[in-house]
Every structure is written in C-alpha cells, then in structure tokens.
Amino acid sequence: MSNNTEAADDPAAAAAQRILDAAEADGIPRSEVLTVVKAVYTVRTGGVTSVALIDGPAFRRRRLAHVVGTELYDPTLKPEDVYRAVVGELPPRRASAS
User: Fold this and answer.
1) pTM for the predicted model, two decimal places
2) How far is the C-alpha of 67 from the C-alpha of 49, rounded, in Å?
3) 62 and 26 in contact (C-beta within 8 Å)?
4) How many alpha carbons lie under 13 Å from residue 60 in its C-beta half-sphere?
5) What is the Cα–Cα distance from 88 to 57, expressed in whole angstroms?
6) What's the burial of 16, exposed, middle or buried (CB within 10 Å: 0-12/13-18/19+)?
7) Which value, to the nearest 10 degrees, does the dihedral of the CA atoms of residues 25, 14, 71, 87 take?
8) Which pLDDT does position 54 carry in this prediction?
9) Band of pLDDT at residue 1, cut at 50, 70 and 90
C-alpha cells in the first residue's frame, strides 16, 4: 500500500488502494480501472452497463471486476465512498423510474 496511514484511517481509501494494487499487478492502465469501477458501480446500484468485463485470454478485466465487486459489495463500506476514492469524484445519480 502506498499510504498506510491514510488507509488505516479511511476504509474506502484502503478499498481503493486494494483495487489499484490489483490493477497494477495485472498491468491495467488507470483509464481502464476507471471504466471497470464505473461499470461495476452501475451494476451495484441497479443499472445496466455495456462495458465488457471479459477482454481476451488474460481476463484482466474479469479479475479486476472481481476485486472491485468485492469492495463495492462489502457491507461495511459505502459503495459511493469507494467509488469516490478511486475515481476522484462523486458517482453520477441515477434517474428514478417514473
């Protein structure tokens, strides 16, 4: 972890660091990390996404999506806080069904 003090004080930051560490281990660029986090968050909050989470024989996105999902579905964390810690902004609001 790059910042153990921050992670110890902020569970969402620790979750974000685990996501970023997993991405780095697989050589996944930050832009792709953001895409996967946004897609998994969309599904987590009941939305639909067209982002493919299987991307060839290495299945890097699938592995990363598993890590992201584990963090976003952790009942001790708010998914919005993890999203903000990784992406750097609040998640978009979903339009309510009429």
Assistant:
1) 0.83
2) 18
3) no
4) 14
5) 30
6) buried
7) -80
8) 76
9) very low
